[in-house]
Amino acid sequence: MLLALATDPVAAQLPLSLQNLVVENVAIEECAHRISAPLHAPGAAPGVGTSGHGNSNRPACYFTPPNRTVCFRGIETKRFQAGGKFNLTRSLILCDWPMRTFDPVVLRRLVPRIERLAVTGRTLQRLEQDFPAFPYLRMVNITGTRLNHTGVSAFYELDRLQVLNLRGNELEQIQPYRFRSGHVEVYLQGNLWNCTNDMIWLLKEQSRQYVDKPTLVCKDWKYTGRPVLTAMEYKRVVRESCLHEEIWNCSCHVSYLRLSDNGLSFHPMIMVNCSDRGFYQLPQYLPGNTTVLHIARNKLQSVDSLTTNEHYRSVQDIYLDDNRITSIDILEDTIWLDNFRILSLRGNRLNRIRVYSVEHAMERNPGVGKLYLSNNPWRCGCRFAIRFQRFLRKHESLVADSRNITCYFINDEDGRKQYLPVLTVTPNDICRPSEHNTAAIYNTLSIIFASLIVLIFTKLGYDYYHYRKYGKLPWLIMKMP
């Protein structure tokens, strides 16, 4: 049984990396003393103590009757090979393991009757080989190291293994271990679990031997701080949802787990990738809480489903690049356009959009992130191009590819298409003389009407003031019948 740290004064003083070595009511007191105080154990080998005692970095081991051996900085191989009391070792504790690898095969000839093994040390990163058969070994503790990988068969030959403690290391992912023994308790807490990897097997019934699995926590950037089992459960549900006939050939991933406002649950944010899948229309089904949809390089012609299909209600980022979309006018004044975050329409067949509609939506939408519009056949119509240019200049930080957006007009001389950057196009480039004149007339009329409106309101204000001060109506009113 594991001893609670709070009830053991020795364990309470251990460094965090060593506290996980508290097993069967035995704290690794020798390792703690090696770090915190001089060690003068009965029977200790000469030169064993703290680093503050000027000792060399050579391995040093001591034997404590009846059967325990503690080694620092490696194993004094000659002591074990010489026979004597070290051959009685049943419990071997290796403190401050000095090498990046640990080869358990070496132990078979040194301590063949070992029953318990503990290894700690921040230098250790991997096992050089799988454990060979040890007929009596029933407890293995490798903890407080930088161990980052173990094979599924690393402990398979230990047919009497009962406890495998791998807490406090740097494991990012494991597959279910293979064991010969009937029941093994496995402890995994305190590792750097990368929950972007697949460990859904932890949810299965046979994983009950992983005793502390409810306490495992994700450490990767995407799921950091989230329980591993919670992340895996959402991944399992999304994997099953992705088998729907509408999206069976797409891939689905939980991109993030957002903590609810009350802090009691999580909400998944799901990404679906249907790019290069031959879709002629947006799929009619998406998993719940889908927030990102990649559906580039298909044969889509419209975006109607964004406004009519409830499965798209939570979609915030949609990548529609390299399709056959000719218009997005249907999105005008829709809830979706008022709430989107990323809309990518590069490489489609758009030649015009309702500029005012998109601009109003972007101004109303506080969460808008990026809009991509390049590589479309935009027409350099005189009015549209100027409006489009104003829009791009005003929202250049949001239209991420605004500098790459071009429009074309037909050259009167040779009938060929001529492309110009929208941001730098001028009326002289694209407007014909007649359009120039019409535009000039409209501009003049606009100025005249604006001036008249200002004049009328000014006169109205003056007459009101005059009436309030002198009580006389305007002269024009007095002459009217």
Characterization of this structure:
This protein has 481 residues and is an alpha/beta fold. Among the domains are: 58-192, Ribonuclease Inhibitor (Leucine-rich repeat, LRR (right-handed beta-alpha superhelix), Alpha-Beta Horseshoe); 274-458, Alpha-Beta Horseshoe (Leucine-rich repeat, LRR (right-handed beta-alpha superhelix)), CATH 3.80.10.10. It has 13 helices and 18 strands. The strands form 4 sheets. It has a 7-stranded mixed beta sheet. β1 and β2 form a beta hairpin. The model is unreliable at 1-27 and 35-54 (pLDDT under 50). It is a single-pass membrane protein. Pfam families: LRR_8. Keywords: Cell membrane, Disulfide bond, Ion channel, Ion transport, Membrane, Signal, Transmembrane, Transmembrane helix, Transport. The chain crosses the membrane at residues 440-462. It is found in: Cell membrane.
